């Protein structure tokens, strides 16, 4: 399922180098474990197939879970 510690450390290293945005494409369960690793103070969301999420890392590597959307949410948003 991948090494969540390795991916988390890599994302934190990118943050330390000043990289502002990174797109991570992953599969379950790694994506859920990754959000839990990056945002330890928050309950990680349940991910449905093809869901997307946004996490912001600060300079110290602490993550904030911003939002999550499933394909169903995106379809409804497009209809509005």
From TrEMBL:
UniProt protein name: Phosphohistidine phosphatase SixA
GO annotations of cellular component type: cytoplasm
Gene3D superfamilies: Phosphoglycerate mutase-like (3.40.50.1240)
Example of a GO MF term: protein histidine phosphatase activity
Superkingdom of source: Bacteria
Source organism per UniProt: Escherichia coli
Chain segments annotated as coiled-coil in the UniProt record: none
InterPro entries named among the record's database cross-references: His_PPase_superfam, SixA
């Amino acid at each position: 399922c991948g090494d969540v510690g390795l991916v988390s450390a890599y994302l934190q290293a990118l943050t330390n180098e000043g990289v502002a945005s990174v797109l991570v494409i992953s599969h379950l369960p790694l994506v859920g474990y990754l959000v839990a690793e990056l945002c330890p103070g928050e309950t990680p969301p349940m991910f449905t197939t093809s869901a997307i999420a946004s996490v912001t890392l600060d300079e110290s590597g602490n993550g904030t879970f911003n939002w999550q959307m499933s394909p169903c949410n995106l379809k409804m948003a497009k209809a509005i």
